[in-house]
Amino acid sequence: MTIALNRQTALVTGASRGIGAAIAERFATLGMNVIIHYSESHESANQVARRCISLGANAVTLSADIRSAEEVARMKEKLESRGLVPNILVNNAGVSHFGLLSDMSEEEWDQVMNVNLKGAFLCTKAFMPAMITAKYGRIINISSVWGISGASCEAAYSASKGGLNALTKALAKELAPSGVTVNAVAPGAVETDMLATFNKDEIAALQEEIPAGRLAQPDEIASLVYFLALPESGYITGQVISPNGGWVT
Fold first, then answer.
1. Other CB atoms within 10 Å distance of the CB of residue 211
2. Which residues of 39-59 are buried (b: 16+ CB within 10 A; e: fewer)?
3. Across 37-62, average pLDDT
4. How far apart are CA 73 and CA 76, in angstroms?
5. What is the tens place of the pLDDT at every residue in 142-166?
6. What digits encode the pLDDT tens for the residues 77-89?
7. Domain that residue 38 falls in
8. What is the reported pLDDT for 1?
9. Is residue 14 within 8 Å of 38, Cβ to Cβ?
């Protein structure tokens, strides 16, 4: 079974800025229902919603702490009360941590794991039953190149994204008979707030390491997510695709 993309509903977590906002706006160009999830950035989420509406979408914003099963359940209830049942779930919300593992506290480790991995688990568990019933759905996890290769001083972040990649592969096998695809997009260096702590020299050095010679733009990642969300992409599942400019192959 297939459903025309412009008749679908997409939920993008962590969509108040960066890659998440770009994904929401890419879907908005089709006039579909776009749900913009955020944690605390209320005004930023509203700005994304206004841009989505200007592009022709029916856009709503919704706040929830995706580390909490109770809050994810409440988010689902609020959406259902509005007649919104996602056909597409983009698990984009994430946090990073830079520093030596020996200096990292247990609380900092838990924060990274709870947002990046547990949050994806809770949202997927909440929204996949409707997809299974409909025999159609797309789950797209936003991972990282560091989940493939690992990064020095980013052990927790790398581990959380590596776990997300493994979850993607396992769940794809579980849901394939139900017509639901599960894929991960693992970007390299993208020009977002996550690189805000880098100075100009560090950015320049980073770009020199990348064969493409530049950082990715959020729109470029959004285009890949859009492709994986297409009804025509139903035979692509269990894949971890890394748009990284040739940085890691």
1. 10
2. bebeebbebbbebbeebebbb
3. 96
4. 5
5. 999 999 999 999 999 999 999 999 9
6. 999 999 999 999 9
7. 5-240
8. 67
9. yes
Supply the pTM of this predicted model. Answer: 0.96
Catalytic residues: 157
Are 186 and 241 contacting, i.e. CB atoms less than 8 angstroms apart? yes
- Tell whether the model's pLDDT for residue 193 goes beyond 90: no
- Alpha carbons within 13 angstroms on the beta-carbon side of residue 133 total 8
Residue for token pair 């994304």: 48
Give domain status of residue 249, yes or no: no
**Domains: count for the chain:** 1
User: Residue written as tokens 């809050």?
Assistant: 71
Instruction: State both tokens at 176.
Output: 């394939």
Which of 188, 183, 170 is closest to 230 using CA atoms?
A: 183
Confidence of residue 195 (pLDDT cuts 50, 70, 90): confident
Mean pLDDT computed over 176-197: 92
* Residue of 107, 200, 97 lying closest to 146 (CA atoms): 97
Q: Is the pLDDT of residue 197 over 70?
A: yes
- The radius of gyration computed from the CA coordinates of the chain, to the nearest angstrom, equals 17
Q: Give how far the C-alpha of residue 51 lies from the chain's centroid of Cα atoms, to the nearest Å.
A: 19
Position 131 in a domain: yes
CATH number where 52 lies: 3.40.50.720
| Residue 245 maps to a domain | no
Contact 19, 25 (CB under 8 A): no
